[in-house]
Every structure is written in structure tokens, then in C-alpha cells.
Hints:
heterodimer; A: mainly alpha; two-stranded antiparallel ribbon; about 0% strand; globular; B: mainly alpha
Amino acid sequence: MSQIVILPILLPLVTVAGCLLAYAHRHWQRWISFVGAGLQVVAAIWIFAVVRARGPIDEVIGGWPATLGISLSIDLASAIFVLLTGVIGFTIALDLVLLPPEGRERADGFPLLHALLAGVNGAFIAADLFNLFVWFELLLISSFVLMALGAERPALEGSVKYVAINLVSSAAFLCGLGLAYGACGTLSMADLGRHLDALEATGFRAMLTMLFIGAFSIKAALVPFAAWLPASYHTASPRWSGLFAGLLAKVGIYAILRTGTLVFGADRELVAQALLVLGAASILFGGFGALRQHRLRRLLSFVLVGQMGVLALGAAAGLRGNASAFGGTLLYIVHEGLTMSVLFLIAGRIERDAGSSDIRQISGIKGARAWLLVLPGLAVIGVPPLGGFVGKVALIQTYGPDWPSILILLLSLLTLLAFARVWTLLIARSPASDPDSGKEPVATTVWATWIPTAISLSLALLLTSATAEITWDAAKSMLAVTSAHERLLRGAP
Amino acid sequence: MNLLLALLVGTLFGTGVYLMLRRNIVRLLIGLVLLGNGTNLLIFSAIGLVRDRPPITSEGDRLPQFPTADPVAQALILTAIVISFAVVAFALALGSRTYEVTGTEDLGELGSTDS
């Protein structure tokens, strides 16, 4: 039964192979990719049901002893994120079926999408650090190519900046791996956590912790490492920027949460303090930055950086042992993944149809696209009873009347101002009276964007207090470090 | 030997970072290569250097009699080399395409999306 742990990685890779075999026939590629994404959702639901019922599943590939082999481990939090990846992957694959890429955007996106999903899933279920590094690299390289796909000038500009900064993050991660292996002789998360807890050179250990947290903070787009996100996410094609916004930065925050509990438990106070500073700076940078933007998706990128700041504040409270804050953070991550991917996809399509990304020039958005722009925006701001509210309430209750709560509320206000400006200019303003200006949206474009985003959005809207209990259980299982160590060191059953 | 390797790693990191901060895209790519190589050498030096001691034991021994070279770390370095090789290959293609499309190798001119 524990062999199902390989499914989140195996299914996307098999789909990559299928898409490559059908490379000359785009018609087949679309359906192979769609069926593969559908199977991934089914597998993710199955894994979630098994883990919810029976507890975490561990497997060491190849039958090696626990600390020597490649360990994969799915606990409730990992299962939730694998499900999130499945859903977002499914909506993008559906979007690829409904609106096939044409012209310069060739058919290469299909195998790359599933390679990225394989990397993301692998990162969520890895239980040793080098395996985590390999999955990070897989998802990174796939995202490099997807960002530059089509080879248009804006995409290439964003891609160069994205590549350079993320490669620095990989180099930092690898340095940390080398130093950790040299000091402790192991890279399995549980074993390394045990060794680091017993390490006497506390200065070295603190430096090692900060090296890893720094590398993950670059991936999670926390200020001062956040400049790459507003520089690159809005330059990619709409559906790829939707995919990135939903998944990539979340992997960074997940890595901070997972290693902060399992590996760097001895330094968790230091990590929490660092995350408080990074989170506060990200909130201010993202919130105030969003007010200044006049490009639609670049504005959304700044909002995303602000949300990552909230997640960092939540992670800080969670790493200090507060299970409800941890659960609220996990809920908020899932909610952010779904809503931001919807927003970026819709915003990208609006920009494409209007022929301009400048919100001062787009007007007359109405109907389904207007709703798809307003509802996720309200969810991101944190209007009750949508999921963003539940997550923020958990964090504000944890911090009480202290400055982190004020910053979280300030971000909601700034996001509201930014979105109000967008909605006023795009929806409330009637189009220019000149009949030749602006393009009429093609009917199929509108219809095709409606369904995948509606799926994501309705799931995001359903994330109310009922599902908060699941994330609370997931948080408690992530915080139970000693039993997790014992379980992982025991190896496969 | 350790000191020499440490100095080498430091030089590679320093040169790599210096080149990555240049305006020219080709210098950026060379800097990435040097940074990757410096990281791989760091892993190599962090595990402890032994000379002429492959991890081979005599028949019947469960463990090697003396400290040997660590094969796991060498496997880590090999993986890292392969990954950085693939990344550099893509980065070169990206740089070449950027030059073709934008007509410039000056990174300062790649700012049309930054406002």
C-alpha cells in the first residue's frame, strides 16, 4: 500500500513521456496531457483519503534502510498540497484543451507542464534534502522554459531575470547541502534534524539554518529577495503565469515550514524571528508597490509578494509551536494558490484581448470575466466568508493586538485599494466611444477561460471553517517533530 | 590541500558573483558557470579530503579499515554537475535567443517590462 507514495511523481512523468511520443500530433498531445492531469487529481484524492484515514505514508525507494535511501513521505500537509497541485494542474490542462496554443506558442508546453507538476509534487513529498533539491531543480528548469516559451521580447526579458536569481538560490541551497553533509554525514531530514539538535557548534548550525532559509526565501519571494517576481511573472503567457502564481512560490514557503520543523528545530526561534522581519518587509513592499503599478499582472505580482509576507508571518507563529496559526497558514497557502492562479489567468487573457497590459487603457470588462476578476480579488483581500478571511483570522487571533496583526490588516487595506483601482478602471468605466478602438473579445476566448477558472474559484470559495479542521490536523502532524523523526527513521513498513 | 581548495572555492565564488553583476549577458552566463563549479567544489571539500583511498574493502570485512573517500558525496556532486550542466545549456540558449530578439547584449536595456 505504501507504494502509492510514488504516484504523484510517476503519473506526471508518464504523461511527459506520452506527450513527447505524440509530439508531432498536437491533437493527441492535448488529450494525453488532459487525461494525465485527470489521473493525477484522482490519485491525489485517493492519497489524501488514505493519509486522512490511516496516517502518514513513508517509503524508502529501493528498499534501502531509512537514512541511506531516497525517502518519500506523505503526511496530511503534503497530501493537501499534492491535491492542490493536482487541481491547479488539471485546470491548466483543461485550459490547454479548450484554448490550444497556436502560432509562436508551440506545443512544447504540454510535456513541460507535467514535468513542472512532477517537480512540485516531488518537492511536497520529499523526505530528504537532496531529493528536495533535485525536485526543486526539475520544477525550476521547467518553469524557466515555460516562462520563455514563445520567445517574445517581454517573455525573454522576464526570463533572464528569473533564471539568474533562481540559480543563485539553487547555488545557496547546494552550498548548504554540502556543508550539512560535511558536518553531519547525512541528508535525510529526520536524521539531519537529530544530528543538528545534538550539534555543539551552535554558531555553525545557525549559519547553516540561515543559508537554507535564505535559499528558500528567494524561492518564496520574500523581501529582500522578491524583486524577481514582479519582474518576471507578468511577462509569461497567461496560462503559464497562472500556473506559476498558483504553485511556485508556495513550494518555497512549504520548504521553510517543513525544514523549519523537521530539520532546523533547534534553531526555530531564530528562523521565526527572521521570518517576522522578512514577512513584514514583504507586506510593506508588496502592498505599497501594488498601488503604484499600472500594468495589470505586475500589480497582481506585488499583491502576491504581499501575500507571501502574510504567509511568512504565519510561518513564524507556526514554527513557534502555535498549531492554529500553522493550520491557518496552510489553509491560506491553498487558498492563495487557487485564487492567484485564477487572477493571473484572467488578467492575462484580459490583457491579451485588450491588446494592452496598461489598466488605464483597458475598459469595458463585463460579464463572466468581470466576476472572475472581482470574486478572487475579494477572496485575496479577505472578505468573509471566503477562505482568505479564515486564514487571516487565525493569524490575527494568534498575534493579538501586536504589530504583525496591524500589518496583516494593512495589507488587506492596501490590496483593497489596489483592486478598487483595477475594478474602477476596468469594469466600472464604459469603453471609449470610438468604435474602432479596442478589440471585441472572441466568444471562444471568453468561454474557454470561464470553466477552468470557475473550478479553481469555487474550490477557493469552499475553503471555509469546515476545511480549517483538516489543515489544523495537518499542522499538528507537522509540528509533532519527535514522532515524525521516529517514524521516518524507522523507514518503510 | 584543504587551504588550497578553500581558497580556490572562494576565488570561484568571488569571480562568479562579480561576473554575474556585470551588464553583459555573456558575462552573466559565465558567472553562473563559475558559481556552479564553485558550489560543486565546496561540497567536495566539505566532506573531508582523503588521498588515494577508494571505498573498497577486503573480502569478509564489514567496514573499511581506514577512512576512505565518501562515495555518497561524490554522487551528490555528480548530480549537481549534471543539473548545472543542463541549466547552463538552457541559459546559453536563452541568452542567444535574447540577443537575436532584442538585438542587444546589454542587460540594462532589458527593462521594458519593469514599470
